Amino acid sequence: MTTATVTGKPDEPVVATRNYLTEEGVTLRSWLLTKDHKRIAILYTLSITFFFFVGGAAATLIRLNLVTPAGIFTPDIYNRLFTLHGIVMVWFFLIPSIPNTMGNFLIPLMIGAKDLAFPRLNLLSWYLYVGAGFLALFAILIGGVDTGWTFYTPFSSLYSNGYVVLALAAVFAVGFSSILTGLNFIVTIHRMRAPGMTWYRLPVFVWSNYATSVIMVLATPVLAITLMLVAVERLLRVGIFDPALGGDPLLFQHLFWFYSHPAVYIMILPGFGVISEIVPCFARKPLFGYKFVVWSSITIAIIGFFVWAHHMFVAGISLYAGLVFSLLSYVIAVPSAIKVFNWTATLHKGWISFDAPMLYALGFIGLFTIGGLTGLFVANLAFDVHVTDTYFVVAHFHYIMVGGMVSAYFGGLHYWWPKVTGRLYPEWWARIAALLIFFGFNLTFFPQFILGYLGMERRYYSYPPEFQVWNIFSSAGASVLAVGYALPFFYLGWSLFRGKRAGSNPWAATGLEWQTSSPPPAHNFDVTPTVTRPPYQYRPEPEPQDV
Amino acid sequence: MSDAPVIPQPEPQYATAEQQADTASFGMWVFLATEVLFFGGMLLAYTWLRATYPEGVAEAGRHTKIVIGSVNTLVLLTSSFTMGWAVHAAEHGSRKALTQLLAVTALLGLLFLGLKGYEYHKEWTEHLVPGLNFHEDSVHAQTIELFYFLYFLLTGIHGIHVTIGIGLIAVMAVRARRGAFSSRYYTPVEVTGLYWHFVDIVWIFLYPLIYLAGRS
Q: Phi and psi of A471, rounded to 5°?
């Protein structure tokens, strides 16, 4: 074997001397031209972390503004802040968050492959992301955009005085980055599995990313063409969205949400995948109802394409269309609920340990459930009329995207940190951060349900004074949340140099990624593994069949 | 016929050359799925326009140059035939036929672009280019402008695809001439062929939507 002890302390696990971090050189050039999926995953992690803090800074300023009813910033600056927050967080953090970092790193490892099917395409995808990111930052720095992340016409195509075309170009380009990633994942999962790795032996993380990739490949091109139409309409004053030109703004909303509702599932399905890995590992039990979890991901990806108009209940669609989309929105809650039930059943009679990844996972289950149940409220036509464009909706989707996806992201980050870096993170600090994030999150967003129900509109820089108390709660929560998000940055950074050596499988987890050394060698496995068992075999012997 | 069994080593992530070939063609199919939705958004916009303003679209359709459009349809369909034939030649390892058929396909693609350019030129002189020089004295002027907006968008993006296709085919022709392919290795030709047929199929949808509207 090619592993050897490099640390002087005899009680620490061995570390692989031959690993992807050093094997192909340590120069900047070797990183920027790498075709290794693991290195590209690291490049993505660094870039999305940067954008997470950019979007987070905007969120901080938004919450600061809302401490007082009159607001601190001018309305124009406030509009630019929430637009910046939305565009950066949706396209430059959430959508690539888990797929492009953990998905990139883990999918080939989990299926026993040496790399993704198209490594050059993978690198191109990162360059598109970075290029688009610079374009977006440039648009922000020279004056910003005030349309909201939804770019509704005719405001975006005629009235807005921001740098709309630049922002549209950035989102257009980042869309192709996500299409290429989705394509790469689909092809890899179909064609690169190790011998014996049948579809039903795939970890749920792989299935979830597969479902996500299908959405990326089929929905993103529609966004691309829609944004292009808006840009042309703005530049040439001819187009199909502006009523003054004979166009129809509802057509824009249909096209936009045809992408952007499925995109919501791009922003949560990979999180389901992470939770489905963490829960069995820290409950020491196989995932309950594996096939149900798998097929609920696929079902969500499919039905997700047929619920988009629930964003438009008050926009002027027909009542019958509203009824159909309302019903379908209820239907999509079923597979989501199946997952929550399955995770809960996995916990039942498990040997649960509360390590940081598990704290995030448990937080995820609770927060996602609240976000999902309030989703049923807004799927209801009558209730939606009451809360459309209020903070109720803001709270609802933040419970899914932040409470859900960001928790899953941090959970996964801690869970696979030892595999990626070969080092353990400091457990105590990680638990503190997980708890801070959970409490900070609830303090930030639960008051927003109440505010929304009472009638506080989103996207306004000011509000009636009677809403101030809840807004102060929310802003106080946001500061706790900010501390919670900043903490990992420090202790994970510390652990890179001082953390204990992890060994190849610190969690005693199943799954091929734990079979290889930490950090893995450049081509992942010295010998292509052969798979003989289903995933999540956490009890060595099958349960005794009691009579 | 020199048919040296040239089979490049598979890239490191693949176990065998067969796996690599199979993966490449599957990748192109997934990419084409993306493309279908890309054009789908524009076709939805077209459908909306035609359903909302049927008379205007009919009048606009009568401004289109049906002779050029029809000849171009013939040209592109023929190029798909020669492309299919080229893949067949590659399967049988006939290097000369492959090179020539690829060259003919690329030339037909260029002819298509040339005719399309001539058509654009005529439309420019007739003041049919929205946003730049559009002028039309008709009660349906606004709809005609929107029709031509979608027309230029659809044919323009299709034209970009044709251009990329010609580039790919030209590269394949050069590689074929140098003997890069054999009956055991011709995946790039096959994948390029898939792409070219897709570009052709898109045109088969565009032709009736653009040229036959309002002409029944």
A: -65, -35
pLDDT digits (tens, 9 = 90+) for A324-378: 999 999 999 999 999 999 999 999 999 999 999 999 999 999 999 999 999 999 9
Q: Is residue B13 part of a domain?
A: no
Q: Is the pLDDT of residue A8 over 70?
A: no
Element holding A375 (H helix, E strand): helix A356-379
The tens digit of pLDDT for each residue in A105-140 reads 999 999 999 999 999 999 999 999 999 999 999 998
Q: A400-416: per-residue pLDDT in tens?
A: 999 999 999 999 999 99
Contact A109, A416 (CB under 8 A): no
Q: Please report the pLDDT score of residue B214 as a whole number.
A: 83
The owner of tokens 């989103």 is A458
- What is the spatial distance between Cα A412 and Cα A48, in angstroms, rounded to a whole number? 15
Number of folded domains in chain B?
1
Give this complex's ipTM: 0.93
What percent of chain A is predicted at pLDDT more than 90?
Answer: 90
Task: Spell out which residues of chain B touch residue A218, defining contact as CB-CB under 8 Å.
Answer: 33-34, 37
Residue of B nearest to A192 (CA): B14
Residue of B nearest to A36 (CA): B13
Task: Report yes or no: A83 and A490 within 8 Å, Cβ to Cβ.
Answer: no
Does A238 sit within 8 Å of B146, measured CB to CB? Answer: yes
Query: Cβ contact (<8 Å) for A191 and B134?
Result: no
Q: How far is CA A181 from CA A116, A162, A280, A445, A537, in A?
A: 10, 30, 28, 32, 30
> Does B20 fall in a domain?
no
Q: Domain limits at B117?
A: 39-212
Selecting from A225, A238, A251 the residue whose C-beta is nearest the C-beta of B38 gives A225
Predicted pLDDT of residue A398: 97
In chain B, residues with a C-beta closer than 8 Å to the C-beta of A240 are: 45, 48-49, 146, 149-150
User: What pLDDT is recorded for position A106?
Assistant: 97
- Beta bridge partners, A423, equal A501
Q: What are phi and psi for residue B130, nearest 5 degrees? A: -65, 145
CATH number of the CATH domain containing B180: 1.20.120.80
Task: Domains for chain A: give ranges and CATH numbers.
Answer: 36-514 (1.20.210.10)
Chain A stretch 85-114, residues whose beta carbon is closer than 8 A to a beta carbon of chain B = 108, 113-114
At residue B106, does pLDDT exceed 90? yes
